[in-house]
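Action item from last meeting closed. Structure (267 res):
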């Protein structure tokens, strides 16, 4: 009788309440994943090779934002996976948003393959040239990325430089495919992202062409007055008026006779 009553007793909550509690639980898990991603990003972003870690013993205080524990974890992640460790941050944020927005949360089990995506990103990062600030004895992909890339170059029957480029291309394709699967993207979402990317690319190219045409037109308008127009003539100064010179007196002319007449009159 007791077992029959236990099997047929009414549930504690009705169906709508259970659904609401389930949604709130997923949202709480999503918020926790976002917080976890922020903490990992803080650890990796403030990582310093001078911090005390498994590979370096020092009495200096840790510069990591999460203290000594953060410095130890960040040093281990960078040493093993290099820049591929940032894939952990991306996965935590994407799945956190999915759980909070209730979009694709039914594909959460794909997240267990995140270490594979981290490994592929590490291998791809090992094909990149480190910047001047990278002073480690391993590449951007950590020890794991360098080891796998070295094995791939030994298998490729070509020069090292060409082999690195080919390996980088192949690994990049694998990274995109693995990331799309691990982050829970389906065909509909991939198609929508591709359409947005294509429209954005077309808009950017169109804006670049318009900006170039406008710049060329402005430059042509600025050059036109100096290159095509005839030089402006400076106005000529008006010639100064000349005073008439006194007439030259001829010995037998009219003026001479007038002077002679005046002289006779005075006599």
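Sequence:
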């Amino acid at each position: 009788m007791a077992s029959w009553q236990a099997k047929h007793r009414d549930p504690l909550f009705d169906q709508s309440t259970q659904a609401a509690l389930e949604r709130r639980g997923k949202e709480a898990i999503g918020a926790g994943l976002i917080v976890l991603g922020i903490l990992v990003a803080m650890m990796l972003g403030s990582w310093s090779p001078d911090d005390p870690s498994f590979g370096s013993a020092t009495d200096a205080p840790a510069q990591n934002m999460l203290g000594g524990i953060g410095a130890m974890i960040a040093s281990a992640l960078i040493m093993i996976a290099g820049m591929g460790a940032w894939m952990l941050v991306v996965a935590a944020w994407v799945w956190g948003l999915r759980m909070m927005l209730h979009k694709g949360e039914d594909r959460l089990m794909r997240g267990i393959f995140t270490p594979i995506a981290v490994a592929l990103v590490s291998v791809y990062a090992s094909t990149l040239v480190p910047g001047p600030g990278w002073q480690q004895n391993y590449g951007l992909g950590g020890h794991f990325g360098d080891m796998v890339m070295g094995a791939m170059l030994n298998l490729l029957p070509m020069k090292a430089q060409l082999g690195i480029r080919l390996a980088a291309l192949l690994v990049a394709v694998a990274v995109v495919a693995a990331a799309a699967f691990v982050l829970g993207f389906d065909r509909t979402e991939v198609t929508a992202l591709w359409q947005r990317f294509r429209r954005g690319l077309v808009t950017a190219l169109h804006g670049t062409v318009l900006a170039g045409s406008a710049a060329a037109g402005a430059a042509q308008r600025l050059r036109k007055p100096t290159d095509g127009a005839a030089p402006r003539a400076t106005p000529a100064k008006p010639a100064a008026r000349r005073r008439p010179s006194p007439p030259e007196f001829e010995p037998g002319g009219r003026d001479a006779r007038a002077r002679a007449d005046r002289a006779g009159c005075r006599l």
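Note appended to the action item: The CA atoms of residues 37 and 89 lie 5 Å apart.
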